[in-house]
Amino acid sequence: MKTTHQTNAPNRERCHVIVVEDDEGLLRTISEYLRKIGHEVRTATSAAAAWELLLQEPADVLITDLKLPDPKTDGLDLLRRARELYPGLIVLVMTGFASVRSAVDAMRCGASDYLPKPFAMSQLEIALNRALETRRLREENERLRSQLMERESFDKIIGKSRPMQRLFQLLEKVSQVDSTVLITGESGVGKELIVQALHYGHPLRRRHRLVAVHCGAIPENLIESELFGHARGSFTGADRDKPGRFELAQGGTLFLDEIGTMKPDLQVKLLRVLQSRQIHRVGGTRPIPVDVRVIAASNEDLKAKVDRGEFREDLYYRLNVIPLYVPPLRERRSDIPLLAAHFAAKYAHRNNLPKKEISQEAMRILMRHDWPGNVRELENAIEFATVMSGGRSTIEPGDLPFEIQRESSGFSLPLQVTEEGLDFKSVVSELERNLILQSLEIAGGNKARAAALLDLKRTTFVEKLKRIQRGQPTA
User: Fold this and answer.
1) Domains of the chain (ranges plus CATH)?
2) Is the pLDDT of residue 154 over 80?
3) Residue 403's closest CA among 361, 431, 445, 460?
4) Distance of alpha carbon 184 from its chain centroid, rounded?
5) How far apart are CA 406 and CA 400, in angstroms?
6) CA dihedral 137, 152, 171, 329 (to 10 degrees)
7) Cα 456 to Cα 435: distance, rounded to the nearest angstrom
8) Less crowded by CB within 10 Å, the N or C end of the chain?
9) What is the pLDDT of residues 245-265, one digit of tens each?
10) Strand pairing partners for 403?
């Protein structure tokens, strides 16, 4: 048996391999060779022993002989059972009784390759590398497919309100061009989704990368290198050339988030890049052309910063070619039911819970809240409520985060009887609800202490609290 080490593309991936062969000499040759090229190897001389190894610890690769000395099973049976146990397992089959039928049977059962004996160790390595590369490509395709589905969901920005319809009309036009865009809006309104829509809606840019930089999250002494890259030897620890975010986004889109936090000296350099379409790496001497669409975003009023001398006016106008304003949630309350239903469905599915509806009372509370954290806060609240509702199909007021419940209870009760009368039970129920929630907050969630604050028995307090959580009247 030859053991020459000759491959076209040496494999660099370390794998956990199980080798099954009743010829102990061949078993030793294969296992020693695989260890030599960097793999971790366990061995077995029978299908039963190999099955025990698979049960003890998962493997990346199974290399098995088709003909094994087991009275009840052979290599083909082992292959079937192993692939049922680990569907992603790579299986290479060896046999000294090669035939078209046995090869077809093995491939149908999920074998990645088929090695007729005798074979050189280099042939085994090539077959293994080929199988690993196939798996890598399959996993990469699955990852990209998953990303594509996510991107498509990002493109479906939710909103039917008039402010959002105006924004959609702008997006449809702006996504087709290369002009620089400045997105403004409060934190949590979904500026990242707008960036996604602009990038993936572009007929050419979407084929390349969308690279994001949070300007306020990178230390001041590193951000220039992050944006423009650095040359080898430009500073201590720069032992190689490193491309910056502009180069990584070549042909695609560079998203500069929180641009208002950028320091004045870097603003000058960014302006120069936008004007020349060239960058210089830190410590580098030659200009590097860049073809990148720049989208910037800020939750601050950049014009006000310009007026205060905190942001360069020329850079502001260079960025603000096409301004896009994303309205806060309180300016588009009619979108709250759509968003809430979307998030409820999303988190019910993610947590294997029943489909959720939102009760009228719970929706009334959501509509009344001002949402200072905007869509992000609403999403968090609905995720919380979805989990709290558990196996129930309806989200009730008591499932919402406590601070939102508490805020909703702060309206004036119509305690003065008028000629039109009032709903006595509703007024009393709402008063009880407010008092119970307030006492629970003061008591830090301790039900016994909260009950004592209201001079109630703990059992009575708990029963009323349960009725609140189910959205039922307490009185």
Assistant:
1) 16-137 (3.40.50.2300), 156-327 (3.40.50.300), 329-408 (1.10.8.60), 421-475 (1.10.10)
2) no
3) 445
4) 24
5) 10
6) -130
7) 12
8) N
9) 998 999 999 999 999 999 999
10) none
